[in-house]
Amino acid sequence: MIRLATINITRPGDTTAYTIGDRIFTAATGITTAGAVFANLGETMFGNGYVTKAKIFVSGTAFTASLRLHLYTLASGETLATGTTVADNAAMGVALADFAKYEGYIDFTTWVNGTNCSFSIVDDIRLCFQRGTLRGELANAGTLVGILEARTGFTPTSGQTFQVELMSDAYEG
């Protein structure tokens, strides 16, 4: 079954520059250790499938920075390790403690300029995700969460928005 899920990130009202490896999120302090939730992708009957396409829209014009979307599968109520706490403009790190939860990443490197936005589409993805109970280490159905990372430095606009959509081929049984 094909499923779509979207996250919206509205960054803080400042123009603090990002450097390589900085997280892009909604607040300047660590408000969550779970990332942004892609609802309805991991919550299938069997909780597994493939991400097959990703697209991102960024407000403003002529966006050229490279971005990386890190994906994790978390059980209900589960969070990421302390080193992966999500905060805007903080250094991104993938913690060893999150190894079993980490599904992989998607890079957005090629941009098309639209009217008041830029967008990037990656349609050659086959990134597997699987509910934790099938892997044996988690207790509940999985939720796919993402953390957006700057892979090149750039200066954002105040309140800039990032809308990320994932398409999955999820197995229903």
List the helices and strands and how they pair.
Blueprint: E1 2-10, E2 23-24, E3 36-38, E4 48-59, E5 67-75, E6 102-108, E7 112-113, E8 117-122, E9 127-130, H1 132-135, E10 142-150, E11 161-170
Antiparallel strand pairs: 1-11, 2-10, 3-10, 4-8, 4-9, 4-11, 5-6, 5-10, 7-8
Summarize the entry for a quick read.
With 173 residues, this protein is an all-beta fold. Helices cover 2% and strands 42% of the residues.
Kindly name the structural category. Answer: mainly beta
Helix tally?
A: 1
DSSP summary, beta strand count: 11
Taking Cα atoms only, what radius of gyration do you get, to the nearest Å? 16 Å
- Report the order of strands and helices: EEEEEEEEEHEE
Question: What can be said about the biggest beta sheet?
Answer: 6 strands, antiparallel
Strand residue content: 35-45%
Stretches where pLDDT falls below 50 for ≥5 residues? none
What is the overall pLDDT average?
A: 83
What this model shows, in words?
The chain is mostly beta strands and 173 residues long. It has one domain (2-170). The protein is built from one helix and eleven strands, in the order βββββββββαββ. The strands form two sheets. Strands 1, 4, 7, 8, 9 and 11 form a six-stranded antiparallel β-sheet that branches. Strand 7 (112-113) and strand 8 form a beta hairpin.
